Amino acid sequence: MDVREKYNDFFVKCFNLILKREKEMLVSIDKTLSMTEIHVIEAVFSAGGDNTPKRVAQTLRVSPGTLTASVNTLAAKGYLRKEKDGSDKRVIRLFLTEKGARANAVHMRFHERMVDSFLENVDESEAKSLISALEKLKDFLGDFDAKI
Taking a C-beta distance cutoff of 8 angstroms, is the pair 82, 93 a contact? Predict the structure, then answer.
């Protein structure tokens, strides 16, 4: 196996394992939650004060319509609530409910444990080199449409 095949094999297997473990983590929260829904919850949490559906959709790189479907489902499940902005009633804001905050905390803890486990096994210079290389991969993936 040449180096290209090894990298491809690594990325595919690592991605699939992360998804598998995240799905297992989701079951511990709620069997009805999907990966898409937990990432919407995470994006709403991360949005802070800029928690409009438009901004959350941009963060997730999905259309506003796609986000609306997920938001409505999450609101019905009790993970999110929608409120009109206090100063501009035309603007909708998204907030995590207590249930949503708990789900997000479990999801964040999964990511923290994953990163901590990795960092326990590499020294600082290895970690810096790897982050530099992975930034290049992230840039490629982030700008993928321009490269095809």
Answer: yes
Q: What is the pLDDT of residues 114-130, one digit of tens each?
A: 999 988 989 989 989 98
Domain that holds residue 36: 3-147
Total domains in the fold of the chain: 1
Q: What is the DSSP string of 37-106?
A: HHHHHHHHHHHTT---HHHHHHHHT--HHHHHHHHHHHHHHTSEEEEE-SS-TT-EEEEE-HHHHHHHHH
Here the CATH number for the domain that contains residue 139 is 1.10.10.10
Tokens at residue 146, please? 């321009």
Q: What is the pTM of this model?
A: 0.82
